[in-house]
Amino acid sequence: MRIVFLLLLLGLVSCTPVTSPQQFPENCVADTEVTQLLEENWLAQEAVWRLRQVTLLEVGNKKVPLEGFLRLDLVRGEAHLIAMNEMGVVLFDLFVTEKGQQLKKAIPQLRQMKGLAVGVAQSIRIIFLQPRPQVDDHLEAGGYMQRLWRVLPGSSLSFIYDCRGNLRTTRLEGDTGNWRVAYDDYRQFGTARLPEQIIMNDYRHKVKLSLWIREARQEL
Question: How many CB atoms lie within 10 A of CB 201?
Fold first, then answer.
């Protein structure tokens, strides 16, 4: 994942931000059918969400707080992000699809930085749009979690679900990348359950991105 603009902004550092281990419920058995896991995944629903998020970006010991509004169209596979600083100043306006991106607006300092749109768009894709589990993925089940996985050219991709059927982790490891997305603290937003906290670790670039969903409403 390319995040050149962020590394330029903050300075490349050698240490890796620390992430606490995920906590899984242990009062149930993970034995959900694969088709049900896929169907009930909130990212697989044909819905359009408007999310207000608080974000913390960490590169080594550098921390940058942001706020953002994200329109997530799971029907079309699109996301529209408006990111602001703590003072409410719009830093950039980015439209993302599964295959491309368009930087609609950015402050001059960011617009001049090569890799801005590509880096942010790739982060949004892997958190919200792709990759997705598939019905023919290999299944490993036992105790209070289930794991779906498949082998890609040069890499392995896996998805971990808890015993309540919630997607908790997406993990890619290999030549094409080394990252992990954790989905935690699921709660009810309207008729659907969404994770309040999402943490993405890019181990190759030593970057951690934490998102907290403060508001979520579904377009009718």
Answer: 22
Closest CA to 81 of 110, 109, 65, 101: 101
Cis-peptide into 131, omega within 30 deg: yes
155-162/145-152 β-pairing: antiparallel
Contact 141, 31 (CB under 8 A): yes
Per-domain boundaries in the chain? 4-14+25-215
In 3D space, the residue among 78, 80, 87 whose CA is nearest the CA of residue 103 turns out to be 80
Closest CA to 42 of 135, 142, 168: 168
pLDDT tens digits along 158-186: 999 999 999 999 999 999 899 999 999 99
Which of 134, 118, 195, 139 lies closest to 164, judged by CA?
Answer: 195
Give me the amino acid identity at 5.
F
Tell me how far apart the alpha carbons of residues 109 and 127 are, in angstroms, rounded to a whole number: 26
CA dist., res. 60 & res. 202, Å (int): 11
**Which range, of 1-5, 52-56, 184-188, averages the lowest pLDDT?**
1-5
Torsion of CA 82, 157, 181, 78, to 10 degrees: 20
Beta bridge partners of 146: 141, 161
Both tokens of 125, joined, read 């894709």
CATH 2.50.20.10 matches 4-14+25-215: yes
